[in-house]
């Protein structure tokens, strides 16, 4: 759930676009709703708003320069390393779990790895 205040802020900084009604109310299109969902997904991944704005612009343009691709790959690599380190840090705590909890975590991690690999393979082909 996104608050009205947050939506107003996104609109004021140019993340969301809104038309105006005759009575000066903001009207958001389906595209704006998709953008809002994308913004919230990016926020959940801890992207700063300026990076989210750049990602939205790239999505709308439908093309990207090689330097932007390199920047994205670098950013993703850094995020993957951070996640790897985060997982490594919690291994001692995972070892204290019972066997069923360990199995559940291992299965979830395996599913995520598989999804990531499939996404990477799809992009590279």
Q: How does this structure look, described?
A:
With 125 residues, the chain is mainly α. It contains five helices and two strands, in the order H-E-E-H-H-H-H. The chain has helices at 4-12, 30-44, 49-61, 66-94, 99-124, and strands spanning 19-20, 26-27. The longest helix is centred in the middle third of the chain and has 29 residues, at 66-94. The radius of gyration is 19 Å and the shape is elongated.
Summarize the structure.
Keywords: DNA-binding. The protein is mainly alpha-helical and 125 residues long. The chain has helices at residues 4-12, 30-44, 49-61, 66-94, 99-124; strands at 19-20, 26-27.
List keywords for this structure.
single chain; 125 residues; mainly alpha; two-stranded antiparallel sheet; 5 helices; 2 strands
How would the blueprint of this fold be written?
Layout lengths: L3 H9 L6 E2 L5 E2 L2 H15 L4 H13 L4 H29 L4 H26 L1
Antiparallel strand pairs: 1-2
Helix pairs in contact: 2-3
Helix and strand composition category: mainly alpha
Helix content: over 70%
Please count the beta strands (DSSP E, at least 2 residues each). Answer: 2
List the total number of helices: 5
Query: Any idea what the shape is?
Result: elongated
Distance between the first and last residues' Cα: 36 Å
Low-pLDDT stretches are: none
Proportion of residues in β-strands: under 5%
Side by side, the strands of the main sheet go 1-2
**Roughly what is the average pLDDT, rounded to an integer?**
84
Largest sheet: 2 strands, antiparallel
GO molecular function: DNA binding; DNA-binding transcription factor activity
Keywords: DNA-binding
Organism: Neobacillus citreus
Protein name: MerR family transcriptional regulator
